[in-house]
Design a protein that fits this description.
The chain is an alpha/beta fold. It has a single domain, classed as Rossmann fold (3-Layer(aba) Sandwich). Helix content is about 45%, strand content about 20%. It has a 7-stranded parallel β-sheet with strand order 3-2-1-4-5-6-7, sandwiched between helices.
């Protein structure tokens, strides 16, 4: 039986980038972790080392290399929570799975590309949140957090599907903020600046994006995953209990220029 006094965080997409950086911060804050990730065998050598370092925090760390978009993965986590009496203080959605294509021409976005991207990066946040609420595996003053981006309101090259997903994500989060409030659950989005992650390097013309935003940012550097992880830590604390339904920029002022 798991210690009922433990604080638990559920991280969807916690093996790399913003999810992993947030996991490190939450572990240092005394959170035990349930991490859902989807990675290949080639990637797992490094990821296993990162997970081992998390376990050195003396918190319990449960990892599942499963597809977060599948119902059976949710069922597995429900069963684990009920068996171990886990109640989540934090649900963090950090799933980066989207199509980066133009709207026309060869290899352009299809309707399926839009639907898959919106489902993975927006609707899936609600799917997990609903599962946590319906199963009652949340603790008092729980925090639901997801990551959005400046593409929510700006046109960026090949970002059409992801932009639609981010706008949808924010609409879902606003609705959750109101409808989940009776359960003492807050729901917020973090809008990170252009962040140095593997996901960034998969974007076409990533080198140009990096150079432009280093010049654009008031502090002349990209946002680092650790910058964002620290704000996740803040939102996960009881000091943030009255922050609800917000999009919180974490970009050093980059969006202002």
């Amino acid at each position: 039986m798991v210690n009922p006094d433990r604080k638990w965080a559920l991280i969807i997409g916690g093996s790399q980038g913003l999810g992993l950086a947030s996991a490190k911060e939450l572990a240092s804050d005394g959170f035990s972790l349930v991490i859902i990730h989807r990675d290949s065998r080639v990637q797992m050598e490094k990821i296993d080392k990162d997970f081992e370092s998390l376990k050195k925090s003396k918190q319990e760390v449960l990892t599942f290399n499963k597809d977060a978009l599948k119902t059976e993965t949710i069922d597995i986590i429900k069963e684990v929570c009920l068996k171990k009496n886990i109640k989540f203080k934090v649900l963090l959605h950090s799933l980066a799975k989207g199509n980066l294509k133009p709207l026309f021409g060869e290899n352009s976005l299809s309707t399926d590309d839009y639907q898959q991207t919106i489902n993975a990066m927006a609707v899936n946040f609600y799917t997990w949140a609903k599962a946590v609420v319906d199963t009652k595996v949340y603790s008092t003053d729980a925090k639901f957090i997801a990551f959005t981006s400046e593409g929510n309101s700006r046109v960026l090259k090949n970002y059409g599907a992801v932009s639609a997903a981010k706008s949808t994500l924010e609409a879902i989060t606003r609705q959750m903020a109101v409808e989940f409030a009776p359960f003492k659950i807050t729901s917020n989005c973090i809008q990170a600046g252009v962040t140095a992650t593997d996901s960034l390097m998969r974007i076409p013309n990533a080198e140009n994006i990096i150079e432009f935003n280093q010049r654009r940012n008031p502090f002349k550097r990209l946002t680092q995953p650790g910058d964002v992880g620290k704000v996740v830590s803040l939102l996960a604390s009881d000091k943030a209990n009255w922050i609800n339904g917000c999009v919180i920029p974490v970009d050093g002022g980059e969006r202002l220029i």
